[in-house]
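Subject: Predicted fold for ATP-dependent 6-phosphofructokinase, 325 residues

User T.R. writes:
Posting the sequence so we have a shared reference for the thread.
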Amino acid sequence: MIKKIAVFTSGGDAPGMNACIRAVVRTSMYYGIEVYGIRRGYNGMIAGDIYQMTSHSVSNIIQRGGTILKSARSKEFMTKEGRQKAFEQLQKFGIEGLVAIGGNGTFTGATIFYDEYGIPTVGAPGTIDNDLFGTDYTIGYDTAVNTALEAIDKIRDTADSHDRVFFIEVMGRDSGYIAIQSGIAGGAEIVMVPEVLTPITEVIETLKQGWNRSKSSSIIVVAEGDEEGNAAEVAEKIKSRVDIDIDIRVTTLGHIQRGGIPTAYDRILASRLGLGAVEGLMNGHKNVMVGIINNEIIYTPFRDTIRLPKPINEDMLRMVKILST
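User M.O. replies:
I've generated the structure tokens; pasting them so everyone works from the same file.
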């Protein structure tokens, strides 16, 4: 029976991380396991910034965005010397297992750490990008989509008032999940994502079809990692190839998508994953990510989560094209 575990958040923050931390702490206490918090991810593990957590430690945090444990990306943990320091700090506290809330980089570090020192880790998928294989949704994704959608709705009002074409950039360097769902929900005429090439010629043709139907304003949602470039670059390409006078504006939503009060869905998802992570460690799971697929808790090896792609549903892409006509 595992006696002591620690929880930390690493990489980009995501709304719902606090709900997950809360679930990890309270599930541990329910089963009589001592639980510790590690501040600032792997950097805090190396520095020994570790403290015992209680039920009171996680009171009144389920509704808060960000992470009370702070987060960071650690260059030092990428070195063997850094991992040695981290292991020595965990030994001081008698920690036998870890719950890592983060993404691929976090899980890659945990895999190497286990290979070298045998500390088991169960990961909880915490990223707004929803790009991790092994779960239908990641912590923070639903909130990020709703944040982007609220902005799109407001921008559409001003686009319609001034007969403008707006290019709205959302987060997603390698994943178009935020773009596709916020774009469909926001009634975007075009959604551009990294997974599928949308040529500039196709964008222009779609806009022209709208103008021929006396459509005076349009919304194009662009994931930041699209192959044609970010929203500003796409807008410039459109301007240079269209021979009529159109009022084009660009809005980059940026880090507002990372913050904010988590939705009910994200709070419940994060709570289920936090509980599942602790029970996974108790049942001997190691080097796995806990996820939910078809509403069931699933444990996926880190090597698959890191290696395997999570493609966008083709029906979603088809829906954009059909509903923009």
